[in-house]
Every structure is written in C-alpha cells, then in structure tokens.
C-alpha cells in the first residue's frame, strides 16, 4: 500500500530544501551537487526525525525528493544570479 502524500508537507519540504541551498550557497558558492547526492543528503538528514515520528523510509521518500528538488532548483537560481 502506497503512503498518502500530504501536499502541505511536500511544499514545506521543498521550502526547507530552498532554505538549505541559500545557507550553503553563502558558504560554498562554487560547489556542485549531483541530484543523487542531494537526495541522499536529504534522506539521511530526515531519517532520524522521521523514525522518531513513526514514519518509515517508504513514506519518507517523496518528502526527501521534494526537499532535494527545492535545494537543486534554488541552487541553480543562485548560481545564475551570481555576479
């Protein structure tokens, strides 16, 4: 059975990824992050709090991907805007 996806939670996770990108960009503007690495980082950073809340890895995956998408999208915007 597929877990039900909460659209509000997806939006919040995407925003979390965007915020993380902005913080990291200030510190490491020249870095490059492959999509698979960003998804892994988001998944790993969310795993423990999700487990404490009783959320399994299958249910966590769409939210980790949403956070990674927000990160990558914002990172690319910041790189394009860089002088």
Radius of gyration: 13 Å
Shape: elongated
The total of helices stands at 3
pLDDT < 50 stretches:
none
Q: How much beta, percentage-wise?
A: under 5%
The portion of residues assigned to helices is: over 70%
**Secondary-structure-derived class:** mainly alpha
How many distinct beta strands?
Answer: 0
What string gives the helices and strands in order?
HHH
Task: Describe the largest sheet.
Answer: none
> Whole-number average pLDDT?
89
What is the distance, rounded to the nearest whole angstrom, between the alpha carbons of the first and last residues? 48 Å
Keywords, separated by commas or semicolons:
83 residues; mainly alpha
Question: Can you walk through the features of this model?
Answer:
The chain has 3 helices and no strands. By secondary structure, the protein is an all-alpha fold. Helix 1 (7-27) packs across helix 3 and helix 2 packs across helix 3 (57-81).
Please give a quick description of this structure.
The protein has 83 residues and is mainly α. Helices cover 77% and strands 0% of the residues.
List the helices and strands and how they pair.
Blueprint lengths: L6 H21 L7 H18 L4 H25 L2
Helix pairs in contact: 1-3, 2-3
């Amino acid at each position: 059975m597929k877990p039900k996806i909460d659209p509000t939670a997806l939006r919040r996770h995407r925003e979390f990824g965007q915020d993380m990108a902005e913080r990291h960009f200030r510190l490491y503007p020249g870095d490059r992050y492959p999509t698979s690495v960003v998804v892994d980082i988001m998944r790993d950073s969310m795993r423990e709090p999700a487990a404490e809340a009783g959320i399994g890895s299958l249910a966590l995956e769409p939210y980790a991907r949403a956070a990674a998408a927000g990160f990558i999208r914002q990172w690319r915007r910041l790189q394009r805007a860089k002088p």
